[in-house]
UniProtKB/TrEMBL annotation:
Swiss-Prot/TrEMBL catalytic activity: adenylyl-molybdopterin + molybdate = Mo-molybdopterin + AMP + H(+)
Enzyme class: transferase
Protein's name in the database: Molybdopterin molybdenumtransferase
Listed GO CC annotations: cytosol
Pathway given in the UniProt record: Cofactor biosynthesis; molybdopterin biosynthesis
GO molecular function, one term: molybdopterin molybdotransferase activity
Known EC number: 2.10.1.1
Origin species: Paenibacillus sambharensis
One of the GO biological process terms: Mo-molybdopterin cofactor biosynthetic process
Record has Metal-binding as a keyword: yes
Residues annotated as domain MoaB/Mog: 196-377
Cofactor annotation: Mg(2+)
Keywords: Magnesium, Metal-binding, Molybdenum, Molybdenum cofactor biosynthesis, Transferase
Length: 466
């Protein structure tokens, strides 16, 4: 097999992580909204503003089982000398008491029921006892009540018209509870992005296949699919493809026709057979000359087709990135970071294409830094980047690096401060520590690493990152 790459493989210009994130987030746009049943909207991003449709609570509401009373009638009540009140009725949740609570009387009331007119307090059942009055039921109140006691006034939580959720909000169970309370049986949410995924590499086998000499199973595709689903996308796994430029280019064209975004893993570095590096370099050079084409979709497919037609002889002009908004072209093909510096991204016919490393550790970092924020942006997120916290390193990092490093870690708390314990097996090609990691710790570039106790930035992963 001929080498796919010449000297052009070394002409990649690294951009900082923040700049690469900016380019991706500026290039993608939220997908159109769709109407979904409220119970299906957990984890989705809201595409409309939602307001309280009534005051909440909509009436003065009892917070306890007990008796609705005039607080003044109980002012002198004690356990030894309780106030005696005549009981004139009962009101349960969902009912409305027809009368008015007069001085010297009480109404038996259940939690959540509307407090009758005339009453200004609810005495909890445990502070009362039944009393026998000639010809009438009575209650003994053994402690004084104050106005408003155990009563939620109308509008205490929300006033009619108050905003309860804004566009871009990721809907959790609490939001769903609010929306259901105010009658939103359906809401507008952004469509989930459909993400095609495939791996490149002649060495790859299906996950279910027995190992063979020199071969490994394609675990990256399954990992990426799980990552896509974890941030709200719909994964479309397309398997693995050998290091064949024609096959990979055709697979990319088909994937871009079917999906809203495409992620590949493998073949992105400077190796002789790294086909994705050639394709991304083609997008970098050729797109600039075709950005003004009358048919952007056709031009985008031509960029991929050029690899099929010219294969290993492909030499590509130009070094500049395509202007934002052109709809196709390279965003970056090298990032100043470890691991995963060859991580690349492009836009093809307005759809994002990410070429991630084939090394599992680097693949994971590339997804978290550049894919997850973009997929969240495509779903309308108002804050697509990871949450970060400052943490103290639990142990020293002795080795320096010319670029910032993103190291898998377990984040915990000690003496009220976040601490970051770096995990073993943290090299780009290693995967043993992937399940344990709940953070990526950024170790700044420098010749000497970082000392134990040094303050570092930690990007939160898993349940912590939202």
């Amino acid at each position: 097999m001929l080498s796919l790459q010449g000297e052009a493989r070394f002409n990649r210009r690294a951009v900082k992580v923040a700049e690469a994130q900016r380019r991706v987030l500026e290039a993608v746009q939220p997908l159109p909204p769709e109407t979904a049943a409220l119970w299906r909207c957990g984890g989705r991003y809201l595409a409309q503003s939602c307001e309280a449709t009534v005051d909440w609570p909509p009436f003065a509401r009892a917070g306890m089982d007990g008796y609705a009373v005039h607080a003044a009638d109980t002012a002198q009540a004690t356990a030894e000398q309780p106030a005696v009140l005549r009981v004139t009725g009962t009101v349960a949740a969902g009912q409305v008491y027809a009368g008015t609570v007069q001085p010297g009387t009480a109404v038996r009331i259940m939690t959540g029921a509307a407090v009758p007119a005339g009453a200004d307090a609810v005495v909890m059942l445990e502070q009362t006892a039944e009393a026998a009055e000639p010809g009438a039921q009575a209650v003994l109140v053994k402690a004084p009540a104050v106005p408003g006691q155990n009563v939620a006034p109308r509008g205490e939580e929300f006033r009619c018209g108050a905003v309860i959720a804004r566009p871009g909000t990721r809907l959790g169970p609490g939001h769903i509870a609010h929306l259901g309370t105010f009658g939103y049986a359906e809401v507008q949410v952004h469509r989930r992005p459909r993400v095609a995924i495939f791996a490149t590499g002649t060495e790859l086998l299906p996950v279910g296949a027995p190992l063979a000499p020199g071969r490994i199973r394609d675990s990256n595709s399954a990992m990426i699919a799980a990552l896509v689903e974890s941030c709200g996308g719909e994964a479309i796994p397309l398997g693995h493809i050998a290091d064949d430029p024609a096959a990979v280019s055709l697979a990319l064209e088909a994937a871009l026709d079917e999906a809203d975004a495409v992620i590949t893993t493998g073949g992105v570095s400077v190796g002789d057979y790294d086909v994705m590096a050639v394709i991304m370099r083609n997008l970098r050079g050729a797109a600039a000359t075709r950005a003004g084409a009358e048919d952007p979709e056709g031009a985008a497919h031509d960029l991929l087709g050029a690899v099929v037609r010219e294969g290993a002889q492909l030499e590509l002009p130009g070094q500049g990135a395509v202007p934002r908004g052109a709809g196709h072209g390279l965003l970056f093909d090298k990032v100043a970071m470890r691991p995963g510096s060859p991580t690349s991204a492009a836009m093809v016919n307005g759809k994002p294409l990410w070429a991630l490393s084939g090394n599992p550790g680097a693949c994971h970092v590339g997804f978290e830094l550049f894919v997850r924020p973009a997929l969240r942006r495509m779903q309308g997120s108002s804050s697509p980047l990871h949450r970060t916290v400052n943490a103290r390193l639990g142990a020293a990092v002795r080795k320096g690096s010319p670029h910032d490093r993103y190291v898998r870690a377990v984040l915990g708390e000690r003496d009220g401060l976040w601490t970051a314990e770096l995990l073993a097996f943290n090299k780009s090609s290693m995967m043993a520590s992937l399940p344990e990691a709940n953070a990526l710790v950024r170790i700044p570039a420098g010749p000497e690493g970082a000392e134990a106790g040094a303050e570092v930035t930690a990007l939160l992963l898993g349940p912590l990152h939202e």
